[in-house]
Specification:
The complex is a heterodimer. Chain A is an alpha/beta fold. Chain A has a single domain (9-354), classed as Alpha-Beta Barrel (TIM Barrel), CATH 3.20.20.140. Chain A contains eleven helices and eight strands. Chain A has an eight-stranded parallel beta sheet with strand order 1-2-3-4-5-6-7-8. In chain A, strand 7 (283-286), helix 10 and strand 8 form a beta-alpha-beta unit. In chain A, helix 3 runs parallel beside helix 4 (139-150) and helix 4 (139-150) packs parallel to helix 5. The mean pLDDT of chain A is 97. By secondary structure, chain B is α/β, with parallel strands linked by helices. Chain B has a single domain (15-366), classed as TIM Barrel. Helix content of chain B is 35%, strand content 10%. Chain B has an eight-stranded parallel beta sheet, sandwiched between helices. In chain B, helix 5 (156-166) packs parallel to helix 6. The two termini of chain B are 38 Å apart. In chain B, 54% of the residues are buried. The mean pLDDT of chain B is 94. Classes of the chains: A alpha/beta, B alpha/beta. Chains A and B meet through helix 6, helix 8 and helix 10 of A and helix 7, helix 8, helix 10 and helix 12 of B.
Chain lengths: 355, 370
Amino acid sequence: MGKPTPGAIDCDIHPALPGTDALLPYLDDYWREHVLMRGLQRDNYNARAFPPNAPINARPDWRPAKGFPGSDLSTLQTQALDAFQTRYAICNVLHGAPAIFSEDLSAAFCRAINDWVKAEWLDRDPRLRASIVVPMHSPELAAQEVERCAADPRFVQVLVWEMTEIPLGRRMYWPLWRAAERLDLPVGIHAGSSFRHPPTNLGWPSYYLEDYVSWSTGFTGVLNSLISEGVFVEFPRLKVVLMESGVTWLPAWMWRANKTWRAVRAEVPWLDKSPAEYAREHVRLTIQPFDAPPKAEQLLRIIEEIDCEDMLLFSTDYPHWHFDGDNALPDGLPDALIRKILVDNPLKTYSRLQA
Amino acid sequence: MNIAVADRQPDTARQTDLGIVDCDVHPYTKTPADLDQFLSERWRKHRASIGARSRGPFANAPNYPRMSPGVGMRMDAWPPGGGHPGSDLAMMREQLLDAFNVSHGMMMPLLGRGGDERNVEFGAALATAANDWEAQVWCDAEPRLKAAIQITTEYTEAAIKEIEKRAGDRRFTHVMIPPRGLEPLGRRRYWPILEACAANGFPIALHLGGTSGHPSTGGGWPSFYHEEHPSYPQSKEALVTSLVTEGVFEHIPNLRVALVEGGFAWLPSLGWRLDKHYLRLRDEVPHLKMLPSEYIRQNIWVTTQPIEEPERPEDILATCEWIGWDRIMFSTDYPHWDQDDPRYAFKVRIPEKEKQMLFRDNAVAFYNLD
């Protein structure tokens, strides 16, 4: 029996697009005709990073008889919202639209997904909030989409994937981060890749297990990029949320990043504090999956090493399969920290939830 | 840069009385031409005309310029008589072997770079030349130094031939493979090479490096050495993941692997992560018969440098405990800028028994040293 979570804010759930044809009503005339002409509505643009039939990507009791896991509102209401009695849950659609190579087609699909989320999810349950899906390989078009969606306060975050074509800290991305900061939108960086490159710097692994394990490693590269380039110097109010990262890799990254910074900081003179300090101030992490050590005292040591009560945010990662029953919180977390994880930290991170 | 700062007392004056094994020492040539005597006329001409061709933009410089001359050398390691740091045996004795009472220095030469060469015939010739140079120029003059067998992983037959040729020569103690090759090292195409290492009794030292042509992060090429330097643990994590997941240690249970110059504090969390998600996805990898963390515990060793420095120094002891003190081996990385000094690398006192293991006994057993 898990710890109770009533009133919690679930920062990572995954409604699924039932199929590309579901977007047709949300495309403008040009793009609808374009899609129909090419027959794209018949293709499946699900993200390679999250194959829906892999066991890890849907809990057995959350897997519907037909359709993709997470594609049905009433099922999601029962299994995710009612079961955990969440006050809000943030929808992160992991469709492949942001990875489409044509920036224009990618932007058209992302616009349609955001309008679909609004009409078919947010309008139908007041507990739902959503992240803005963007054509992430075009920061310019992505910033335009953020501006367009931000007028609706139920969009609380910008969603990108951790592995893109060029690292997310690069200055090319700054127009997007500038828009996010100005509009009080944290940037949610979700596990996964658009596979412009192999997910590891050794090349292409053989197994999905390796791809999945590589997500945590990838996040260390994202943090190195965001911090080194000075994103948090340029955008001091910006928050990023690492979603589905595994969490326990964080202390070792802090120690290494701090050590390198102390020696190599002449290369990045705009940094006026250590990488770990930037992380504690600007970086948040959702807690599922939590790559927990076998022993409770090891977990407590990891929490002490992270040394920041503000960083962790509650998530179920519905419908992905990381825990059974209602045991959504890793065993052995201190009660005071749990309260912050469930409510206080999400509210502080997502200022739009307080509106 | 390279200003000596003694902000604390050495852990103990007796630290180096043990006769330590340094698992990462870099010898260099005085001039690139030093290798020529070990190359045939055909490859000497090739080297002079075409030269090395790896998978990066610059003819003779790394992708990420270092912060000190000579591709990141210690400023005080330039020999007064000229030549590159690490090229002068007298100076290496003075600064490393004698200074720290090193009984065995495990050489990891970063020249020749046969493994990076796109022309694999040339790569194999360079590897063989570098191996002859190590044995004749270094080991014969200084028996405390132990030679690596460099190979070209993209040329299986030549690699196996080179490993077999050096078997039985006690100057050679390990096979050195740069992990950033064309594909993750666990892939089946590399198994014949890994089998040859085990069959000939050589452990494998996986020193960071290689020019795969793949970006240093899954999200593309970073801008700074400030990002490249901490990407070395990312290589190592992918390497452990590949070797374990492909079933290399199921297929070659007696293969022993050392991860060199990647630090080690990331390893416990990687083991927890592999175990957790393996249990969900085990149908994909039915060739695994144990938990991933059990293969790690059985077949993988780590070297310390550049040692992670926790904000609470004592946390490093817990990390060592979680990995297993018998799997951690000390290394300096002499003469690089980020070299660890055995007297100061650990900022906490290590219990005597564990100190003996980490600074000496583990490596003596791993490398089968006399």
